[in-house]
Design goal:
The chain is an alpha+beta fold and 310 residues long. Helix content is 51%, strand content 18%.
Length: 310
């Protein structure tokens, strides 16, 4: 035991022993292991059972991992023989470690409340309002963002971080937005315009920038479109503002398909036409009014080209 307590070296005015070094390694390793466990699929599945949004689960697990690493690091430093007071203010920020952990917990609560507000509005309160489902989603998204911003401001003010003191930082951020973050700002503002004007809504079949598919999500910065090949493509929201957008469902969800069909020369033209119309009528999605029709389009090099319209 005397060997373990013998000083190896000194750091500042504190001596580091073999036992202290072992304790430091042990606590730090435990923190890393627990932090990695919090990022595992087991913990994510546990959170998902409570019907928590996937993005919120990722934020919570990341914050918890950082808290665990900081907690065990400070504990390891104390165990090594260098006292760090949990309640003593840190330099520059004038916040203690306990206050920082409390601040992180409150921020997690704000994110959770914002996510819960969106789910409550979209799944319960607005369900029977008679509004269009996509408009309900837009209202829930905007209110959720407002709750998030107000909550963050409230938490920071109560933590002693006065927002008036961040004016210089805000100016620097403004310069950064003007130079390096202009695309992000443009996409965010475009997302607000999309939610307000609703040129596209969830479930619409759209074509933009050469991408054709169904709108699945409209997020703050981007929109998720799923193509016919079941491939999800993330499209920046600015594309829906500064590019021509074809919305097949805008105003009326009925669309007409024109299908080219080629048959061999010598085929009975009337029978081909009747067969094409009969095939279109058998499809469950084909409208009876207007009825499907087929006509001879042109004589090709090796086929008679028909066009089926449904």
């Amino acid at each position: 035991m005397t060997l373990l307590q013998r000083p190896l070296f000194h750091l500042g005015r504190h001596y580091i022993t073999v036992l202290g070094l072992i304790a430091f390694v042990g606590f730090f390793a435990a923190g890393v292991i627990i932090a990695r466990f919090l990022q595992s699929q087991i913990v994510r599945r546990l959170f998902s059972r409570f019907k928590i949004d996937t993005n919120f689960v990722a934020i919570v697990t990341t914050m918890l991992s950082l808290v665990v690493i900081v907690f065990f690091t400070v504990t390891a430093v104390n165990a090594a023989g260098i006292p760090l007071a949990w309640t003593a203010p840190l330099p520059v920020i004038n916040l203690s470690l306990v206050q920082i952990f409390l601040l992180i917990a409150l921020l997690v609560a704000v994110f959770w409340f914002s996510s819960g507000t969106k789910r409550f509005l979209f799944n319960r309160l607005l369900t029977h309002s008679g509004l269009d489902r996509s408009l309900q989603y837009a209202i829930a998204q905007v209110i959720s963002n407002i709750v998030l911003v107000i909550g963050i401001f409230f938490v920071l003010e109560n933590a002693g971080i006065h927002l008036a003191a961040l004016a210089v930082f805000a100016g620097a951020v403004g310069v950064g937005v003007g130079f390096g973050l202009q695309n992000i700002a443009s996409n965010f503002i475009s997302g607000l315009v999309i939610l307000a004007e609703r040129p596209i809504t969830i479930g619409d079949r759209v074509e933009v920038a050469g991408i054709l598919g169904i709108v699945r999500q409209i997020r703050a910065r981007s929109t998720v479109i799923v193509t016919n090949d079941n491939i999800a493509i993330i499209v920046p929201n600015s594309k829906f503002i500064d590019s021509p957008v074809t919305n097949w469902h805008y105003g009326d969800r009925s669309v007409r398909f024109r299908l080219p069909v080629g048959v061999a020369y010598g085929s009975d033209v009337n029978k081909v036409r009747d067969a094409l119309i009969a095939a279109a009528r058998e499809h469950s999605a084909t409208l009876k009014d207007p009825e499907p029709t087929a006509f001879l389009d042109k004589f090709g090099d090796s086929t008679i080209d028909f066009e089926l319209v449904a």
